[in-house]
Amino acid sequence: MMLPPKYIKEIEKYAEKKKLTEKKKQKIIEKIESLYKRFVYDPEEPIGIVTAQSLSEPATQMTMRTYHFAGTAGIQVTLGLPRMIEIFDARKEPKTPTMTIYLKKDYQDIEKVKRVAEEIKEIKMKDIVLSTTIDLTELWIKCKLDTNKMKEYNIDIEKLPKKIRIRGIETKIENNNILKVVYKKDDIRGLYKLKYSLLESHIKGIKGVSQVVVNKEQDEWVISTLGSNLKKVFNIEGIDPTRTTCNNIFEIYDVLGIEAARNTIVEQAKFTMEEQGLDVDIRYIMLLADLMTVDGEIKAIGRYGISGQKTSVLVRASFEETKKHFVNASVKGERDKLKGAIENIMMNQVAPIGTGAFELVGSIPKTKKAEKTKSEKPKKTEKTKSKKAKKAESKKKTKTKKS
Known about the structure:
single chain, alpha+beta, four-stranded antiparallel sheet, 17 helices, elongated
């Protein structure tokens, strides 16, 4: 059996690095070939069913609600069974979107890391406001600004009115620490709504990134965030785009493509399983990830994804919405060729998997022993004559005597 080219390249690199002789190199190749043979599945083995069992059985041992704290500040990340459901149901938005941001070697100084973290974190108006006052007669809102925090976040007070993008208002700065917002419409209810939208308005950083934590992993600084926006993060100077990632599969698909999304499904599912202390062979997860992304887009494993798009009518009906599938199939005049395991089990037939996938046809050759036994058979004597023959002879004798 030939090993995949990737394995052969890795062996050659290892042999060059360790300066191995040709004999030792050949021994390593033989050992890896024997191990590789053990992990190749048998012909007609139902690997889909085995994969489903191997993944879903450990998933029953997972806890329903688990949160992982990323960093000392405590960013809560959803794990356990809810996270597995998010991954395999291909949810557009995870409950707790996070990013793991790696920096280039030139930006490993703590001051530079802090500066990058400040650029990433979203700062809203409520983060720099100490108090608010509303005048219902004149229809204006005054916000007292925290000048110390504005200096810390490097926000220019003069440029602040331009950053507030709300329709139907006029903004201006008073006494270098008060922002006055005048409401143009004559509506008191609208003024209270304006207060909420004013405090929630985006001032600086990346939208959606509410928390930022700086941690040291081995010899480098890593930034963990609550909230994700890969497109904008990649534009920040000093960030390493080759290693920076997030847990939102659809965001990775939009920014980096389907192969990156497939790798994220594998990594996220493996990490979620391992965090719960469950050891599942990575090839089962890889097979499922391949199935979800084989068409160039991310499909869920459910009624609107892989299970709901199978060619067999009976398989679709056995999963969910039985009546709907049978009605649609009868209207369209669909035929089920009964090529899978599930539909054959339903019809009480041998499933075409494993030994049931083959039909043995052939003539059994005559052996020499069988020929000898035929030739050695004794000739019929009077003793070996059958009872019928004896009766026939006795009848003949009686007839002759009568005549």
